[in-house]
UniProtKB/TrEMBL annotation:
Pfam families: YpsA. Belongs to the UPF0398 family. The lineage of its organism: Bacteria, Bacillati, Bacillota, Bacilli, Bacillales. This is UPF0398 protein ACFQ19_07310. NCBIfam families: PRK13660.1. InterPro entries: YspA. It comes from Oceanobacillus locisalsi. It comes from the Bacteria.
Length: 189
């Protein structure tokens, strides 16, 4: 396996409305843990469409991991200017990613033209990657369900790995237990 696609929820689907939400730290930590394992097993590229939320947070994690590993990131939005209606702080992150990614290319020239662009993007990402890592809750699949359904319709042997709410809870506990003050509080025993 050389190319991994990572996707998941948009921030609003997680109830996250600001870039400084403390939950993002835990999500990035869970992503980093899984991505490190994939990198150590030999993946060379992580590809995303660059959508808000899990995908942009994945890009942040990969950019940090580049300091330790030889890992590349490719960004393939479904069309140009996908960030046109995004909040300014997220738009700035996306524009920085466009300049710093190892590869960046929209799949369609021009602006949004129709939902078919999103369906085509999902199929293209499945075709170009060896597997996917999804942050998803089976009980509330949200928009990531469109990608998952596309994987079910392909004849390609396509492994799907997940980060679940339980995985996130374990990450939160691990990070809390690393805090020396955690052990000083009687409520934590």
């Amino acid at each position: 396996m050389k190319i991994l696609h990572v996707t998941g929820y948009k921030p609003t689907e997680l109830g996250i409305f600001k870039e400084d939400d403390s939950r993002i730290v835990f999500i990035k930590a869970a992503l980093e843990k899984r991505l490190r394992a994939f990198i150590e097993e030999g993946i060379e590229w992580v590809i995303i469409s660059g959508q808000m939320g899990i995908e942009l947070w994945t890009a942040d994690v990969i950019m940090d991991l580049k300091e330790e590993y030889d890992i590349q990131i490719g960004v393939f939005p479904p069309f140009e200017n996908q960030d046109q209606r995004w909040p300014d702080p997220i738009k700035e992150k996306y524009e920085e990613l466009m300049m710093t990614a190892d590869f960046f290319k929209p799949l369609y020239k021009g602006e949004y033209q129709g939902a078919y662009q999103f369906r085509a993007k999902d199929l293209w990402l499945i075709d170009k990657s060896d597997a996917a890592l999804l942050l998803v809750d089976d009980e509330n699949p949200g928009s990531v369900n469109y990608f998952y359904q596309a994987t079910q319709r392909t004849s390609k042997e396509y492994p799907i790995f997940t980060i679940t709410p339980q995985d996130l809870e374990e990450t939160v506990e691990e990070l809390q237990m690393q805090d020396p003050n955690y052990w000083d509080e009687p409520d934590n025993y």
